[in-house]
Design goal:
The chain is mainly alpha-helical and 687 residues long. It contains 29 helices and seven strands. The N terminus is likely disordered.
Length: 687
């Protein structure tokens, strides 16, 4: 070992031009010329394939009405971070690390190939001496990393039995091709070294070791030269095939995934960024029934899907055994595109209705996707298409009718909207009164028993604080969120515009809400609708009650004198945590409650599991093997907490239902009650 180190030290400080290698010296000139011609042809095939897909599919899409503008400088920074740090891919540590090794190894090997090309085919002369030695070491280590990464993929797929990525031959073909390129590359290096074993080639740590192995079995000298020519030819054929196959199936994700991430929406995860304005602009109705009604970005994202299945892993509908698998929605569209010449453009045969109506719009699929595909947005567009075609469940039609007639989806008269507040001093806004702080009750807060208890708790807190606020009373209407998520874009716009008119009439400065769905709609989608209609949008602050309560505690306006010895766990509502990236405000409230212990469930914060109510699923009931609320309750039980806390009236209702439905599954239940943050504050303040 010391002898090898001495050899390395000697050659490290040698700058003689003899410390290099004879590039392609053992390869016949006709073979070299043939190789370059075939590489050029393969690159031409690849460019032709990508251009054909661009013009025959991607550019056939509809115009993009997305209301999100991001500077190219910001996108470039995001892409660089995406490539270098691999944060999104590393959310699955094993797969992310394997991809990191493969990518970095591939880049290093490619740079090494470029260096050799520049030295051999241009007037530049640099590939010798110290630079050659250090380059040889780095390139060899890159090659090892490349093979280790590919080996990790194959181990997980073939040995460990992980079949999350589609088990199709064309998926495995990419890994096998790259593995062949890496192994044949090392064979080329080893047989070159084995011809005469120059001392300085010890810096090619992997190639030199392999050359010693070859020599031990008689492959050295002229025999090694013959094997070198064979290995080089095999390596060349595999590289040519790789370039030619780049636009094909799984190979293409190396290009499309990067473009998809660059063009992805940077809006909050719960925001629907596509604004459909069909009724007074002469445009086609909203929604998608044929693949070419998707936008350019949608179609490119569909081609970017790597079939990794991360979206399936996090989908609450899929976990409950419902017919939805988000990946199959994307691949269904891709199949329809690829079958367009024989089966037309209609998407209906490829995507089942029940799959679309199973979606809870929790946006977990978008959050998990390593290439930035907006699966959730595509599902909503497909729902819109079904609505325009009249292909909707009876429950959805009932919600639309109730929302249009009664201004709420609960099938209640809007005249009963304030019945929940009997016995409380609730200041209702006068007709033209300006409102500094509007407390928005919401439909659940008015008509659902669990939501009503949250409304009463918030009224007690607001009155206790002496804050000047108003409610709209019977003039309050549904935000339109359920209608929009269920695909009735026109109804959403009608309801939204009436609410916006109310806000403008009362010159509302701040809206306080306890429903994350209302919060998301007011904060993200109403301003976008105003802009799409070229209306002047008033600057209205929107605050969720968890943020409001955390602020009141921080300003010491809520003292919370009462202490308990309760153990709490918090269920993050999808539209607050993952959807609008606020997971700290609710916990700040919980941590302020004296004497309590806060424990986390397995799925928490941005990775929280859905209660199953979103996207209209509160009213729609697509059957599965289990129920999302039951799954979540079992997870809460496993945390050992006594009280399950949430910050959404829909979540509270669903979790209470789950608690009832799972009664009797266990002899010892830990979850004794389910409470909203506001209800805990009322208890602590003794209100």
């Amino acid at each position: 070992m010391s002898r090898h180190l001495d050899q390395c030290s000697v050659v490290m400080f040698s700058t003689a031009e003899s410390v290099t290698r004879d590039i392609l010296g053992n390869i016949p000139s006709w073979l070299i010329v043939t190789f370059y011609l075939l590489v050029m042809a393969a690159c031409g095939i690849a460019c032709t394939g990508f251009l054909y897909r661009l013009f025959s599919v991607h550019l056939k899409g509809a115009s993009d009405q997305t209301d999100v503008v991001v500077s190219w400088r910001g996108r470039l920074a995001s892409v660089c971070s995406y490539i270098v740090l691999h944060r999104q891919l590393l959310r699955d540590r094993y797969a992310g690390f394997a991809h990191l090794l493969t990518l970095y190894g591939f880049v290093i090997l490619f740079i090494g190939t470029v260096l050799v090309f520049l030295e051999h085919q241009t007037p530049l002369h640099f590939f010798y001496g110290r630079f050659y030695l250090v380059s040889s070491l780095i390139i060899d280590l890159g090659g090892v990393a490349f093979l280790v990464g590919l080996g990790m993929f194959l181990w997980r797929r073939m040995v460990a039995g992980n079949v999350r990525i589609l088990r199709e031959w064309w998926v495995t073909t990419l890994v096998v091709t790259l593995l062949g390129i890496g192994l044949s590359g090392f064979a080329v290096e080893a047989t070159r070294i084995a011809q005469d074993f120059p001392e300085f080639e010890i810096w090619s740590v992997a190639g030199y070791s392999l050359a010693k192995t070859f020599a031990a079995v008689g492959i050295r000298g002229e025999t090694a030269a013959a094997w070198h020519r064979f290995s080089w030819s095999l390596h060349a054929v595999l590289c040519i095939a790789f370039f030619a196959l780049l636009p094909w199936r799984f190979f293409s994700h190396m290009v499309y995934s990067l473009v998809s991430w660059t063009l992805r929406s940077t809006a909050p995860k719960s925001q629907l960024t596509t604004i459909a304005i069909p009724y007074d602009r002469g445009q086609k109705p909203p929604g998608v029934t044929h693949w070419n009604e998707f936008t350019f970005r949608d179609l490119l994202q569909i081609d970017a899907c790597t079939t990794c299945g991360r979206c399936n892993d996090v989908c609450p509908a899929h976990a409950a055994g419902k017919p939805l698998t988000p990946r199959e929605i994307v691949l269904g569209v891709r199949t329809a595109i690829n079958s367009r010449h024989t089966n037309g453009n209609d998407l209906a045969p490829w995507i089942a209705d029940n799959a679309l109506w199973s979606c809870t719009t929790c946006a977990a699929c978008n959050d998990a996707c390593p290439v930035g595909i907006d699966v959730y947005g595509k599902i909503i567009d497909l729902r819109r298409g079904r609505v325009e075609s009249g292909l909707i469940p009876d429950a959805a039609e009932t919600v639309f009718e109730n929302s249009a007639v009664d201004d709420n989806p609960f099938q209640k008269s809007n005249d009963d909207r304030m019945n929940w507040g009997q016995g409380l001093a609730i200041p209702v806004a006068a007709e033209q009164e300006q409102i500094e702080l509007l407390y928005w009750i919401g439909c659940s807060g008015c008509f659902d028993p669990e939501g009503q208890s949250v409304s009463r708790a918030m009224i007690k807190i607001l009155n206790h604080l002496g804050i000047r606020y108003r409610v709209l009373g019977k003039n309050e209407r549904c935000t339109g969120d359920p209608a929009r998520r269920m695909g009735e874009e026109g109804l959403f716009q009608q309801m939204a515009l009436r609410n916006l008119d109310q806000f403008h009439k009362h010159s509302v400065k701040t809206v306080l809400v306890h429903c994350p769905h209302c919060f998301n709609t007011f904060r993200n989608e109403y301003p976008a609708l105003d802009r799409a209609l070229n209306r002047s949008s008033a600057e209205i602050d929107v605050e969720h009650h968890s943020q409001f309560l955390a602020r009141m505690i921080a300003e010491k306006k809520l003292s919370l004198p009462r202490e308990t010895s309760d153990t709490l766990t918090f269920h993050d509502p999808c539209y607050l945590g993952r959807g609008n990236n606020d997971v700290e405000s609710p916990r700040e409230v919980l941590y302020a409650l004296g004497g309590t212990t806060v424990v986390e469930m397995e799925h928490n914060r941005r990775n929280s599991a859905c209660c199953g109510a979103g996207g209209g699923s509160f009213w729609l009931d697509v059957r599965g093997d289990d129920r999302s609320e039951n799954i979540r309750i079992r997870e809460a039980e496993a945390s050992g907490a006594c009280t399950l806390v949430t910050a959404c009236p829909f979540c509270k209702t669903m979790l209470e239902a789950g608690r009832t439905q799972t009664e009797g599954e266990s002899d010892s239940r830990t979850i004794k009650r389910i409470k909203d943050l506001a209800e805990l504050i009322v208890e602590a303040e003794g209100l």
